[in-house]
């Protein structure tokens, strides 16, 4: 036997313990290996979730822990669903989700299609394009406020360079009509590479012989695109939409650094709104009910979507 | 390519595609280039109009990032002994003296400690769980795996309320240990899913051969599977590291003094009349460059990592 760390450990192990380890059945090992993870997730995910459900029926306020907690039934839920401000928040979120997914899929797919033309050096450029996605959204979002400054900001300067509009005449973050687009632009900048990578994997998974067969049948390139590329790419596109949808629904750091939800509450996405209710107004019970409603919505939508995705895959 | 293929794009097609992609890459990388260059600009150059592409490099941003400074009157400045170091000189040129180090160093160190601590833990636990899910019949396996994944669908703020209360009760608020445990729990779903994919790809025959040779399960796992999974484990580790490195929402809610990481800190770097952009850019550069290097190292496994192993190349 060679002198590996394992063997040394094995020699140092008392025989009785060694015999026990040796004697462990696969089943026991499976449990020993899985349980720490399950325990951690129960403690940091499931237990808090149950606690949130419990809090959602109360009028608890975390900044006044000594006040008596009353159970108020479904009143928090009732308040949320009839609150018109929440519906404005939902609208802001819907606008953000729709346009980010739209642009990301459009640009991401186009880029993947171009990269799949296999030009020289495409690997290098793909890696470079991916960089924004991996960076800290809070740090990058904060720096974008500098790029968006009227007059001195690079973004405004770029726009004025291309269109001739005076760069100090518009404020991306401060303007009520432009602010929702300012977050869409940065999010698209950041997450398009993500969609691109998924689309690229899809395009690369289509075998060449299908196109060869189509060539022999004299199908036009246009027809090949619509009858081969797009249908075979569809499951990947759907997956990209799912991931990008979940990510953008969770969006907090980038937008809070960019606009802070402003001006007013024009860009106040659900995450930011929830943070306000929970940690600024300290309406803990109310915010818990809010969190549960969001969770049920995302979970429900995602399950329906995954079912549809599986159907497309089966075809 | 030597053999002619009808599916190979033509040369002009490649040329057009290449030009468009390079153009996109240049535009999309501009903000990052701007972060890198702004860090080396003097405060005046940073806010010049039109934006300056060529400028005289200055380390003022980096000096301001690492120090706190106080303004002194010209008479006081005259009375001081000549500056001993180059960075004191930089500060004196602005009629200021160095009052002490800034908190950036501490915050960066916190990011390193919490990032590496949670990465180690989640990869360690994740490898064990992934091995079990890959090789053994675990009851309710699919449900457990889906449960592990579903913990990632919640907006962090939604889970933050009870975690905030829990940490307050347990005294874990604003501690390194608390943040390490929290980030481990966030990352472990990714670790399990990715590592399961990597371990699934290692043929079972290797272990079976080892078991026949008299290895125990543990030995087979340790000596046969682990070395085979080394690249997978390494790339999973980098992903976990990047996610905890970048995390902001929990960090801003649960840390304030001792355990605060760099992402909540960098946006608060302010100078006279607003954010000190060269210093912010310098701080961002030091914080982002390691991730850029890691991304380049990871490029082969990137897609797998970001889609939880759902898409493999």
Chain-wise SSE layout:
The complex is a heterodimer of chains A (315) and B (313).
Chain A: H1 5-12, H2 15-23, H3 26-55, H4 75-82, H5 84-115, H6 122-134, H7 137-147, H8 154-163, H9 179-205, H10 208-216, H11 221-250, H12 253-258, H13 270-279, H14 284-314
Helix pairs in contact in A: 3-14, 4-14, 5-9, 5-11, 6-9, 9-11, 11-14, 13-14
Chain B: H1 11-38, H2 43-46, H3 60-66, E1 67-71, H4 74-79, H5 86-92, E2 96-101, H6 104-135, H7 141-150, H8 156-170, H9 176-200, H10 204-212, H11 217-228, H12 230-246, H13 249-254, H14 262-265, E3 270-271, E4 274-275, H15 277-298, H16 302-306
Antiparallel strand pairs in B: 1-2, 3-4
Helix pairs in contact in B: 1-15, 3-15, 6-9, 6-12, 9-12, 10-11
Task: Walk me through what this model shows.
The complex is a heterodimer of chains A (315) and B (313). Chain A is 74% helix and 0% strand. Chain A has 315 residues and is mainly α. Chain A has two domains: 5-55, no CATH class; 80-314, Orthogonal Bundle (MetI-like fold). In chain A, α9 packs across α11 and α13 runs antiparallel to α14 (284-314). The termini of chain A are far apart. The model of chain A has no long low-confidence stretch (mean pLDDT 87). Chain B is mainly α. Chain B has a domain at 105-268: MetI-like (MetI-like fold, Orthogonal Bundle), CATH 1.10.3720. Chain B has 16 helices and four strands. In chain B, the strands form two sheets. Chain B has a two-stranded antiparallel sheet with strand order 1-2. A two-stranded antiparallel ribbon of chain B has the order 3-4. In chain B, a hairpin with a 2-residue loop joins β3 and β4 (274-275). The longest helix of chain B is centred in the middle third of the chain and has 32 residues, at 104-135. The radius of gyration of chain B is 25 Å and the shape is globular. The model of chain B has no long low-confidence stretch (mean pLDDT 87). The chains are: A mainly alpha (315), B mainly alpha (313). At the A-B interface, α3, α5, α6, α7 and α9 of A face α1, α6, α7, α8 and α9 of B.
């Amino acid at each position: 036997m060679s002198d590996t760390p394992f063997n040394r450990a094995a020699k140092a192990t008392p025989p009785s313990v060694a015999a026990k380890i040796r004697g462990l059945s696969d089943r026991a090992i499976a449990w020993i290996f899985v349980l720490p993870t399950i325990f951690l997730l129960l403690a940091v995910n499931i237990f808090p979730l149950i606690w949130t459900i419990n809090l959602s029926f109360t009028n608890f306020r975390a900044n006044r822990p000594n006040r008596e907690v009353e159970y108020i039934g479904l009143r928090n839920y009732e308040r949320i669903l009839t609150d018109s401000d929440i519906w404005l928040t939902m609208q802001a979120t819907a606008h953000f989700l729709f346009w980010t997914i739209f642009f990301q899929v459009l640009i991401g797919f186009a880029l993947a299609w171009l990269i799949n033309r296999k030009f020289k050096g495409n690997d290098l450029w793909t890696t470079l394009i991916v960089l924004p996605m991996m960076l800290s959204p809070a740090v990058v979002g904060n720096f974008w406020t500098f790029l968006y400054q009227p007059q001195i900001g690079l973004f405004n300067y770029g726009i004025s360079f291309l269109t001739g509009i005076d760069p100090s005449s518009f404020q991306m973050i401060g303007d009520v009509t432009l602010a929702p687009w300012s977050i869409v632009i940065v999010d698209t900048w950041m997450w398009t590479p993500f969609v691109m990578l998924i689309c690229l994997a899809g395009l690369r998974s289509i075998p060449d012989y299908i196109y060869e067969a189509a060539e022999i049948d004299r199908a036009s390139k246009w027809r090949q695109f619509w009858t081969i590329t797009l249908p075979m790419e569809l499951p990947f596109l759907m997956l990209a939409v799912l991931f990008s949808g979940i990510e953008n629904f969770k969006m907090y750091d980038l937008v809070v650094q960019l606009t802070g939800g402003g001006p007013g509450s024009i860009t106040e996405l659900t995450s930011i709104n929830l943070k306000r209710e929970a940690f600024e107004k300290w309406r803990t019970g109310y915010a818990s009910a809010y969190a549960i409603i969001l969770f049920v919505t995302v979970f429900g939508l995602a399950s329906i979507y995954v079912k549809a995705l599986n159907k497309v895959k089966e075809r | 390519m030597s053999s002619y293929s009808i599916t190979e794009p033509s040369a002009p097609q490649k040329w057009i595609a290449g030009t468009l992609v390079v153009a996109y890459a240049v535009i999309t990388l501009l903000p990052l280039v701007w972060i890198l260059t702004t860090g080396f600009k003097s405060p005046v150059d940073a806010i010049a109009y039109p934006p300056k592409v060529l400028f005289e490099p200055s380390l003022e941003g980096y000096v301001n990032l690492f120090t706190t400074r106080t303004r002194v009157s010209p008479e006081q400045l005259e009375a001081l002994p000549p500056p001993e170091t180059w960075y004191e000189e930089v500060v004196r040129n602005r009629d200021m003296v160095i009052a002490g180090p800034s908190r950036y160093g501490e915050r960066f160190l916190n990011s390193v400690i919490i990032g590496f601590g949670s990465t180690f833990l989640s990869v360690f636990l994740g490898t064990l769980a992934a091995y079990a899910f890959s090789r053994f019949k675990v009851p309710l396996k699919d449900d457990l795996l889906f449960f592990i994944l579903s913990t990632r669908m919640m907006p962090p703020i939604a889970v933050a309320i009870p975690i905030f209360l829990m940490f307050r009760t347990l005294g874990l608020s604003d501690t390194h240990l608390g943040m390490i445990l929290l980030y481990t729990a966030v990352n472990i779903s990714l670790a399990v899913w990715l590592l399961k994919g990597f371990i699934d790809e290692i043929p079972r025959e290797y272990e079976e051969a080892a078991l026949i040779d008299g290895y125990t399960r543990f030995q087979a796992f340790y000596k046969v599977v682990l070395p085979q999974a080394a690249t997978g484990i390494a790339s999973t580790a980098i992903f976990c590291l990047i996610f905890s490195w970048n995390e902001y929402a929990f960090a801003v809610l649960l840390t304030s003094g001792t355990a605060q990481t760099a992402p909540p800190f960098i946006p608060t770097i302010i100078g006279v009349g607003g954010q000190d952009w060269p210093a912010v850019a310098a701080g961002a550069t030091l914080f982002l460059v390691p991730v850029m290097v890691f991304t380049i190292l990871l490029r082969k496994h990137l897609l797998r990592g970001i889609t939880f192993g759902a898409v493999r190349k």
